[in-house]
Design goal:
heterodimer, B: mainly alpha, elongated
Chain lengths: 206, 116
């Protein structure tokens, strides 16, 4: 058996387009470990198994539909990185939406005797109130998203902030520093805007 | 990866899973049968099974066995065995369906007789 890395990307592409029986196995041997390592570092907060699953899905997708890869446009490795990144970001966004909904319901229950059955409607109102507050305090949509991540979802993962700020090309240390600066700035604006008293008021009204 | 491929009847992973179920053995037993290491078995699981109705089946199977360094004769035997067992199951379910249909027809005829 050829060892890992003994197939060039060119050979792999030929295998894919010829629907070779061994295409998936070769693709896996050449790229799986490197991609897993790359994405585990890039998305530090994500579960390794989850990343591995998404990599697998991407490989199977490519073997089933090799025509999706256009050799002239990018290299095989770049194509895989782009495809897997997109799937990972979609998966994070999906989880965020679910968590956001849950957090709002939890928040409503925490601040009043709202029945869970009725909680969804109340939660929507609460969510709208928070969104309006953020809109008053911040001018940019990105800052509003940062405020949601910090104050409502309580996210701590640097990579998520780095993705939103589009600074993933920086080194991890640089990303950490930049994220911290942004978080401090958002926090100051929130304090000046009266975030704490808004929360207290929200508590009384709910 | 292998778990996902167990649901795809065109991959060896599915064949090994079927074989394990029907023969009530573990994957280590399959590896032993094919004279392979677990790593080689994993690689083989990710390969597509050539169509046994095609004339070049033996040749393509040999290519895969060489690639994964496993025993070609045992691999061919395993593929044939799984395909035979699946065909038998399909025959059985056809037979069962025919029996159910016959019984239902019989019941309807009896109900009609009773009404008369």
């Amino acid at each position: 058996m050829k060892q890992k890395g003994e197939w060039t990307n060119q050979e792999l592409v030929v295998m894919l387009f010829q629907h070779d029986s061994m295409a998936l196995a070769c693709l896996y041997r050449v790229h799986a470990n490197n991609l897993l390592q790359y994405f585990t570092i890039k998305f530090k907060g994500l579960n390794k198994d989850e990343i591995s699953d998404l990599i697998t899905d991407s490989f199977i997708k490519l073997v089933d539909h090799p025509e999706k890869f256009q050799a002239g446009k990018s290299s095989l490795k770049t194509f895989l990185i782009r495809d897997i990144s997109r799937d990972i970001l979609n998966s994070i966004a999906k989880k965020d939406r679910a968590k956001k909904r849950l957090t709002i319901v939890e928040l409503s229950n925490e601040h009043g005797n709202i029945e869970l059955e009725e909680g969804i409607g109340e939660a929507d109102i609460l969510q709208a109130k928070i969104q309006n507050f953020f809109k008053d305090v911040f001018e940019s949509e990105r800052d509003i998203q940062l405020a949601w991540m910090m104050e409502v979802h309580k996210k701590r993962d640097t990579s998520l902030y780095a993705n939103l700020l589009q600074i993933t090309h920086l080194s991890f240390e640089e990303q950490k520093n930049a994220v911290k600066q942004h978080k401090d700035r958002i926090q100051k604006r929130l304090n000046r805007g009266g975030w704490k008293s808004f929360l207290l008021k929200l508590q009384k009204h709910v | 990866m292998i778990d996902k491929l167990k649901q795809r009847a065109d991959y060896f992973a599915w064949y090994f899973f079927q074989f394990e179920q029907s023969e009530k053995v573990q994957s280590a037993d399959v590896a032993k049968l094919l004279e392979a290491t677990s790593d080689q078995l994993e690689i083989l699981s990710m390969c597509k099974v050539p169509d046994s109705r095609q004339s070049d089946f033996q040749q393509r199977l040999r290519g895969i066995a060489d690639f994964a360094h496993v025993n070609i004769f045992q691999l061919a035997m395993l593929v044939r065995k799984v395909e035979a067992s699946v065909a038998l199951q399909e025959d059985k379910s056809m037979e069962t369906a025919a029996l159910i249909a016959a019984r239902e027809m019989d019941n309807s005829a009896r109900q009609l007789d009773n009404k008369k």
